[in-house]
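Record type: monomer structure entry
Structure origin: computed from sequence
Chain ID: A
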Amino acid sequence: MPGESLGAILKLAAAKEAAAQEFYRKLKEKVRNRSVQQLIDDMIAEEEKHRQVLERTSPDDVLAGTTAPVEDFGISEYLEEPEEKADMSVQEILVVAMKREERSVAMYTLFAEKFSSEKYRSLFLTMANEEKKHKATLEKVYDDKIYQEN
């Protein structure tokens, strides 16, 4: 990536994963629904795994990852992100989380596009795919809890 080394980008990505964990911890404080709390706990654990992978990865030992297709329900693209506030509904919480995952997919995809090395591209496409999985999980819950209940 012009002007930035892979090491610097890996550090930035790891910091974004740590920020995602903190985001989900704060979001969980606003949730009363036990199944959504469990979902958020799962997201925190996933973001921690991603952070650890990124922190342990050096430019010399980047391994090619896998990018199996992930179903995209496309729900978040049609929703407007609400303001975060203390008394958010389950619907608002899910939308905020989906939008955050959407931005993470875009970030990792951008990183992948900036590198010509196939192994670096593969690493970032794998991370984008992981974030797509998170988005799909959130969209599925949204579909089950919001669309089906309305």
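Annotation 1: The helical segments are 6-28, 34-56, 90-114, 118-147.
Annotation 2: The chain has four helices and no strands.
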